[in-house]
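Re: [help] complex structure
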Amino acid sequence: MVEYHLAKVEIGVRFPVTAFMKNEMIKKRILTGDRPTGPLHLGHYIGSLENRVKLQREYETYILIADMQALTDNADNPEKVRKNILEVAFDYLAAGLDPKICTIVIQSLVPELAELTMYYLNLVTLSRLQRNPTVKGEMQEKGYGANVPAGFLMYPVSQAAHITAFKANLVPVGEDQLPMIEQTVEIVRSFNRIYKPVLVEPKALTSKITRLPGTDGRAKMSKSLNNAIYLSDSSAVVAKKVMEMFTDPGHIHAEDPGKVEGNPVFAYLDAFDQDVKKVDELKKQYQKGGLGDVEVKKILIEVLNNFLNPIRKRRAEFAEKPEQVMRILKEGTEKGRKVATQTLKEVRQAMHLDYF
Ligand code: ATP
Ligand code: MG
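Output below.
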């Protein structure tokens, strides 16, 4: 879009540049996304989705449903990936992404992204791929060792292709994605130096809470770790998950002093309770002794259900109209593909691959 308006101005067409156009001209871009490996959870919301919703008016926003990336560790389960495309889309719309102003794109339907990934793979070494700390950790979790699918090992390169194909300036993500942005910047610099300065260096945007822990107390809430509270969970499910949540194992009786650090109940209160003063009081009471786990969990259940209620309501409305949501994805993908196609044209020119 930015190039489109600039081009109009450059060739000096005979209509005035309106305030709207000026605004459009300076709009920077966002690209981020999610793997359709399951519905979205509280970690996605707090780590990235909330920022996307906040910034969608200010930035030209592209959201990628990364189905090919989901297949890198789900090659034997394409049905799971397919099914979750809609689940993720329902979550986006329910959380407040507005398809009139932001563009939701399905990765596999933009083959230019795969092409760009192939070019970038020549700019990255195997040892660099193996050093990526997030991939390293995920490989350990999955027990891959040397039998890691090649597509999985190189998924940060495909992410670099996504970000740069959309010439994104900003990438709202959780902490686990920071090494990917770092690797993207390296690729951009190599490409621009070797070929031509076509690509834009992106910046990561993290939120106040960069990594929400899991209900089991593990460092990251994640679809694959079975420790998530989903945006689509019913209030009864939320209550059950919270009641079974990990807390301070040393806090056995309500009178005992308890630990707030590493206690996900308080991490969730920090993330979702607007009443900071009340949360501080609760923490003090818990640390001193005299506040039971059940009591504080009941407070958390109410906070989470109050937060999730409007999301659930909107989600149910969209889930009743899957055809309409599929249309949003189709239109978004078509629009997104145009942007990627334009970048690839410039990339091929820069790489001397523009033969005819
Ligand atoms: P999977 O387990 O399948 O990898 P995931 O839960 O890690 O799923 P992704 O689709 O890989 O989710 O991540 C999408 C986005 O959400 C990324 O920007 C990621 O940083 C962010 N995110 C995911 N989990 C959390 C979390 N617990 N806290 C903060 N941000 C998160
Ligand atoms: Mg992940």
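The radius of gyration is 22 Å.
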